[in-house]
Amino acid sequence: MRGDFEAYLNDDFRDDSGNLNLNTLLELEDEASMDVAVIMPTPQPDPQNSELGDVIRGNERALGCSLIHPTEPDPIQKVKLSADEWGMRGIKLMPAIHNYNVDDPMVRPVVEAARDCGLIISIHSGPNNCHPNRIGTVASWVPETPVIMDHMGFPDDLDDAISQAKKNKNIYLGTTILRFHRRWGTDPDTVVPTEVKNAIDTLGPEQVVFGSNLPEYRPIQVVNAIKRLKLGDDAEALIFGDNLARIYGLT
Scanning 172, 191, 199, 208, which has its CA 20 to 30 A from the CA of 243? Predict the structure, then answer.
């Protein structure tokens, strides 16, 4: 099985009538031979989680992931709605957009509610309020629940991301890295993301999960960048799908 842990069904996928077109997104996943995709709403202050749930309902290839804002009214209720009414399989925290520290104590009941509802937790990583060390604290609150660290701590904190993943075995580093392609070259279709290989060599491929950040980049572009690392068939099988299948209980 092959899968993409992060794709956004955002306004780029609206048709002339204003409706979200899931098939267009899945066609881009098909280009990279992805069987399933974890799909999130537009990362905005008022995410359209309910609309996303309606669009993907009944499609076995689409695993919903709602965007939860811990400072909004009743975030725990929204976590429960994610599981019980919207049919989501995970939640996403976006401190960079919603402007809070991801390890603030107010976040703990939210991630504990996700754990209790059987939802996977994805977290945007970067500097300051979503630094990998802060995400490590969140992962330590729910050690039995997988936490996917989006962007692997890039652009400046990959070493800390690796350190936190070594310390917290429930952390998986997500390969949504092509936005930083100028670290390795000017063309995202030819770059070799060597630092990603360093992470895999340190952690092993079992803690790295494929993600594209579609539509920012097409899944096939990220697949090809990782293939240029020449990791070997076994490691690629884990990264491109087997790890995601284990995380989301698809096997």
Answer: 191
